[in-house]
Amino acid sequence: NRHYKLVIIGGGSGGCSISAKFAKTMGSKSIAVIEPSDVHYYQPMWTLVGGGMKSLADSGRPMSSVLPSNIDWVKDKATEIKPSKQTVVIGTGSSKQEIQYDYLVIAVGIQLQYEKIKGLPEAFNSAGVCSNYSSLYVNKTLQALKDFKKGNAVFTFPNTPVKCAGAPQKILYIADQYLRKNGKRDNAKLIYNTSLGVLFGVKHYADSLWNVVKSRDISVNLRRNLVEVIAKDKAAIFEDLDNPGKFETVPYEMLHVTPPMGAYDLIKSNSEDIPDAAGFVDVNKGTLQHVRHPNVFAIGDCANLPTAKTAAAVAAENGVLFRNLTNFMNGKEPEFIYDGYTSCPLVTGYEKCILAEFDYNGQPLETFPIDQSKERRSMFLMKKDVMPEIYWKLMLKGNWNGPGTFRKLFAPFKKT
Ligand code: FAD
Ligand code: UQ1
């Protein structure tokens, strides 16, 4: 059995940034990162890729270039976690191996489940059906906008937990502006069908978004869940969640699908005593330490933290996890507390953005001393040009714990 002091499962936003921190403080070759992908994607850019503001290539870097050089990259998929033996199983069948850990960080993200919608993923083979949530389908979004002639442009939000709860409607606003710019808006009806009972979970921002929706002539239907796509008829079927069993067929010219998502089987069913009842890693919401296995921590979308799942949240979790696990390695208590900080840059077109930032209580926790619930060009440029630099150059190198320092710095200038 191979043995490492620290094993990290996943080389996404969480796995990369936390491995970078420990790679600086721990001896060479004492860390393994288990990650099967060749490419690391900066997923927040896909909203802009779908709108044609960036390319898919802009959003990806070779995995080897974003993982620290002094760790062992185990290029494989974890298939089982055995906390009683302190091992992670990789591979299947005869190529199965166990990797021993003293400390474990789980950072596998959340699983996309397009197949839970009848007719998907096959419908992605037809024109007009697209999704910013996958590298496979994100380029179809701009194509659908280019091809659009007349009819309904329909945007969905599933009846499950999701990552970046704002992304399903960012592309709605981008599409609206695209169609206007290209003289096609008069022939289009824009429909946002969401499973939620609200437009956005935090009222401060939801109020602004309702104004955007109204001023742009967009139809919003709450509590509508996409259950089937019939590509040959260009029809999307939604269930009315308040009247189960009641279905509505909506014809589409363009259909942007945000897929159902859920915990990976690795966590949910293949790793004894790791998940909570919903299948996510069962951690303390303040310390990020597993509630039953103190040498196990989780970061990011796979953790059962009751906050909106974003890379911005991962950034803030990073600093807390690093200090708590370091303490624990040194026989001290994990005492640093994550407040649930998360952020969602709600891009409302090709030049404006509402920068939502809030905590576990849904209270705004804004960085800048301005009213961030207003659509702003400055925040759009921050999202488009500044955030990617922060991500690649600071966060993935272990040097970005979120904007908390700036928030404190700007606090005296804030009007209440
Ligand atoms: P990920 O970054 O998804 O990484 C998980 C990694 O684990 C992957 O590399 C995967 O290959 C690996 N993995 C999975 N299973 C296994 C296994 N069994 N064994 C080993 N490795 C495994 N966030 C923001 O902050 N702002 C935004 O504007 C924003 N916009 C978004 C827009 C879109 C369209 C999308 C899709 C996401 C957006 N996000 C945004 C969310 C953000 O991308 C995620 O919250 C963030 O990447 C979570 O990091 P993570 O490390 O938990 O998961
Ligand atoms: C952030 O820290 C972050 O993580 C890198 C994001 O992910 C892409 C974000 O989208 C945002 C908005 C933040 C918060 C940062 C600032 C400067 C407000």
- Tally of strands: 21
Quickly count the helices.
10
Query: What is the beta-strand fraction?
Result: 15-25%
Biggest sheet, open or closed, and with what strands and sense?
7 strands, mixed
**Could you tell me how far the N terminus lies from the C terminus, measured between alpha carbons in angstroms?**
58 Å
How is the CATH topology of the largest domain named?
FAD/NAD(P)-binding domain
Number of separate structural domains: 3
Helix content class: 25-40%
Structural class: alpha/beta
Please state the CA-atom Rg, rounded to the nearest Å.
Answer: 22 Å
The coarse overall form would be: globular
Q: What are the main properties of this structure?
A:
416 residues, alpha/beta, FAD/NAD(P)-binding domain, 3 domains, seven-stranded mixed beta sheet, five-stranded parallel beta sheet, 21 strands, binds flavin-adenine dinucleotide, binds ubiquinone-1
Please tell me about this protein's structure:
The longest helix has 19 residues, at 311-329. The radius of gyration is 22 Å and the shape is globular. The protein contains ten helices and 21 strands. By secondary structure, it is α/β, with parallel strands linked by helices. Residues 9-15, 34-37, 43-44, 46-47, 77-78, 107-109, 132-133, 163-164, 167, 264, 266, 300-302, 309-312, 314, 343, 345 line the site of flavin-adenine dinucleotide.
